[in-house]
Specification:
- By secondary structure, this protein is an alpha/beta fold.
- The chain has 12 helices and 18 strands.
- It has a 7-stranded mixed sheet with strand order 4-14-13-12-9-5-6, with helices on both faces. The chain has a 4-stranded mixed sheet with strand order 1-2-3-17. It has a 3-stranded antiparallel sheet with strand order 15-16-18, with helices on one face.
- A hairpin with a 2-residue loop joins strand 15 and strand 16.
- Helix 3 runs parallel beside helix 9, helix 10 runs parallel beside helix 12 and helix 11 crosses helix 12.
- The chain starts with 14 loop residues before the first strand and ends with a helix.
Length: 426
């Protein structure tokens, strides 16, 4: 029996024979073997590449001590060190940490925390969420409810997903001389809708949920930081909590350590994952402000009502500590500058292809958007033949390569994707 796979996958997956640095060794169904540059960082997580010596050593050292213990009534050094590092790196005032199994689960925890907070604060009717059209926050049920309700892949579950409120997709922004720029009139119109929606529904809303500046799986949409700034202002004015989903954008991917820095604001709650462990193990974290945590601690329940079996798994925490130390010790800002300039140059030729609607780059994210949906199986095969592993979706051929990618690897990614698009959609 063939394994179930995610939406839009190729009918004949490639077998991975090995991996090292930025490269994967693949074998096709017909037995042909390929060495390809990984343009995806294994869904944006393997930022340090494969078989990293420091991460391998951290994992092996922790195995020699203990691999897992429950995190109820017990604690351990890797979790404590990781929590302290996250608090130090995160936007100001996010001082409390809750570890979760995955990014989607961390969003579930954030949503539960927001509702529990409002109830503890005496606002019993505040149990709904305001989210953005075009957003994506995971595949579990509460997370699905705040994903795009029309164009997302969760529209097949009518009646099972709790209906939430949605704002229009924020206006697009372009990177110009290091700044994200957008149409001020479009921004003003969007902010007016935000203000009106929150004003009309303030008694039922617990929180506003958003991916700051870059919507990932919802369309690789780069949008105006002014919208994030306005969300902070309006949430504070009306007593909503502001939740930032930085699972895809955190730890440098957009060129800032956290995407929230583009807007110069901090949320009440923030979710991180993916790059947290350098792609080695599944782990995520939810951070919240001391003020939010205090309301929960001082309530009759005195605790957040969530407790995953594998929360703060020692192996995952140990490798996450090593991953964050690499980010600190290596010049990640320089790495991201190399990615941004390299992807900008490498993907530029795609703009001349008649089937291409748009080409855009932000930090370590490069996007070729077509006029029509991508022929995923055909383009995947064509890219592999060009020496690149890519995972297109919808009308997007995009790349989020490892931070350690060289100029030569970025050039290979650009030429391979341009050639594949021209061949399949020419």
């Amino acid at each position: 029996m063939a394994p179930l796979c995610s939406a839009g996958c190729c009918p004949a997956p490639y077998a991975v024979l090995g991996a090292g640095g930025t490269r994967l060794q693949l074998q096709a169904e017909d037995g042909r073997k390929y060495e390809v540059v990984d343009a995806m960082s294994s869904w944006w997580s393997a930022v340090h590449g494969y078989r990293n010596a420091e991460l391998d050593a951290a994992l092996q050292a922790q195995v020699g001590s203990f691999s897992h213990v429950m995190f109820g009534g017990l604690t351990h050094a890797p979790a404590v060190e990781l929590a302290e590092m996250l608090v130090e790196m995160a936007p100001a005032e996010l001082d409390d940490v809750f570890f979760a199994d995955s990014g989607s689960v961390s969003v579930e925890v954030a949503l539960k925390l927001a509702v529990q907070y409002q109830r503890a604060a005496g606002h019993l009717g505040r149990a709904r969420f305001l989210a953005l059209a075009g957003g994506y926050h995971g595949d579990t049920f509460a997370a699905m409810s705040v994903c795009d309700p029309v164009d997302g892949m969760h529209a097949e579950f009518p009646g099972l997903v709790v209906p939430q409120l949605f704002l229009p997709r924020p206006p697009q922004a372009r990177l110009v001389n290091g700044e994200l720029c957008s149409d001020p009139l479009e921004v003003a119109a969007w902010v007016a809708i935000l203000e009106e929606t929150v004003r009309n529904h303030r008694d039922e809303l617990a929180a506003l949920v958003m991916e700051p500046v870059l919507q990932g799986a919802g369309g690789m949409h780069i949008y105006a930081p002014e919208c994030v700034h306005a969300a902070r202002r309006v949430a504070s004015e009306y007593g909503l909590l502001l939740i930032f989903d930085e699972i895809a954008t955190g730890f440098g991917r957009t060129g800032k350590l956290f995407a929230a820095e583009w807007a110069g604001v901090a949320p009440d709650i923030m979710c991180v994952g993916k790059a947290l462990t350098g792609g080695y193990l599944t782990l995520a974290a939810m951070l919240c402000s001391r003020q939010v945590a205090a309301v929960i601690t001082n309530s009759t329940l005195r605790a957040l009502l969530h407790g995953p079996t594998f929360m703060a798994n020692p192996l995952a925490c140990a490798v996450a500590v090593a991953s964050l130390k690499l980010l600190r010790s290596e010049p990640w800002q320089g790495q991201l500058a190399t990615l941004q300039s390299g992807l900008t140059a490498a993907l530029a030729p795609a703009a001349a292809l008649p089937q291409v609607r748009d080409v855009r780059v932000l930090g370590g994210v490069g996007v070729i958007q077509l006029h029509t949906p991508v022929d995923v199986p055909a383009l995947t095969r064509a890219a592999v033949e060009e020496g690149v592993w890519v995972r297109p979706f919808r009308d997007l051929v995009y790349t989020m390569p490892p931070y350690i990618s060289t100029a030569a690897s970025l050039a290979t990614i650009g030429s391979g994707l341009c050639a594949a698009v021209a061949q399949v959609h020419g």
